[in-house]
């Protein structure tokens, strides 16, 4: 497939117009490689391990959720240098779908809702809300564990607000409460936000909430998904 046709297909899946303003210049074709696409890999993050496996798979294209070039690049050193050196040497394209894929139909938040088996799903300004009707332990089981609960929570979560990724924003939590949620699921909680949250918050890892969408996308498109979760060790 020609690279232009590939980009057109990706923009249908996750229209750039859906992206947050801060994603301007950080989504789409970030690194240009070979003009013909025959083999595609996908992952959540561009890590050295992911790039190495994509090269070993002879991929022409790597599709990810998070760009490796988040801030203006004034020096190419360290991990960034290793990643870019490998991608450029392999003439591999890098395509990023971030907040546009979060908001897209069938994207990151919809995949999370499906994983949790939510029903009666409604959109929030960023995220989704739906009926759950089971325990916090069941949420943990479905997303692979490593959750923390902030606040008093009942044995049954009847209605759950979800924002995949880093979504513990007071306005989003309040929006979920107004829409009837009795708990809110996201990642990367801040102490001050937790102390003022209107409803109990369930904190998961960023990876566990967003990686399922990239895995599902890979299955849907016939790509190779490369799993590279962060190493987490819990001490008690």
Tell me what the structure shows.
- The chain has helices at residues 3-13, 48-56, 78-89, 99-103, 108-116, 136-143, 170-178, 191-196, 206-221; strands at residues 28-31, 40-43, 61-64, 93-96, 119-124, 127-134, 148-150, 157-166, 183-187, 201-204, 224-225.
- The chain is an alpha/beta fold and 236 residues long.
- It folds into two domains: 3-102, Udp-n-acetylmuramoylalanyl-d-glutamate--2,6- Diaminopimelate Ligase, Chain: A, domain 1, CATH 3.40.1390.30; 105-209, NIF3 (NGG1p interacting factor 3)-like (Udp-n-acetylmuramoylalanyl-d-glutamate--2,6- Diaminopimelate Ligase, Chain: A, domain 1).
- The strands form two sheets. Strands 5-6-8-9-10-7 form a six-stranded mixed sheet, with helices on both faces. The chain has a five-stranded mixed sheet with strand order 1-4-3-2-11, sandwiched between helices.
- α2 (48-56) runs parallel beside α3 (78-89) and α5 packs across α9 (206-221).
- The longest helix is centred in the last third of the chain and has 16 residues, at 206-221.
- It starts with a helix and ends in an 11-residue tail after the last strand.
- The mean pLDDT is 95.
């Amino acid at each position: 497939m020609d690279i232009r046709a590939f980009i057109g297909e990706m923009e249908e899946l996750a229209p750039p117009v859906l992206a947050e303003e801060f994603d301007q210049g950080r989504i789409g074709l970030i690194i240009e490689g070979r003009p013909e696409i025959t083999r595609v890999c996908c992952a959540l993050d561009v890590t050295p391990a992911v790039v190495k496996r994509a090269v070993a798979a002879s991929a022409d294209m790597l599709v990810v959720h998070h760009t490796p070039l988040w801030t203006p690049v004034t020096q190419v050193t360290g991990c960034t240098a290793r990643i870019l050196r490998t991608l450029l040497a392999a003439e591999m394209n890098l395509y990023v779908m971030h907040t546009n894929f979060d908001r897209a139909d069938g994207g990151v938040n919809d995949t999370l809702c499906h994983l949790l088996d939510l029903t009666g799903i409604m959109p929030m300004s960023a995220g989704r809300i739906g009926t759950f009707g089971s325990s916090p332990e069941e949420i943990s089981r479905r997303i692979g564990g490593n959750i923390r609960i902030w606040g008093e929570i009942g044995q049954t979560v009847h209605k759950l607000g979800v924002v995949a990724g880093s979504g513990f924003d007071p306005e989003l939590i309040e929006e979920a409460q107004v829409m009837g949620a009795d708990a809110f699921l996201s990642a990367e909680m801040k102490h001050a936000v937790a102390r003022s949250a209107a409803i109990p918050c369930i904190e998961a890892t960023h990876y566990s909430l967003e990686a399922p969408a990239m895995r599902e996308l890979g299955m849907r498109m016939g790509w190779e998904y490369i799993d590279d979760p962060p190493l987490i060790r819990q001490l008690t």
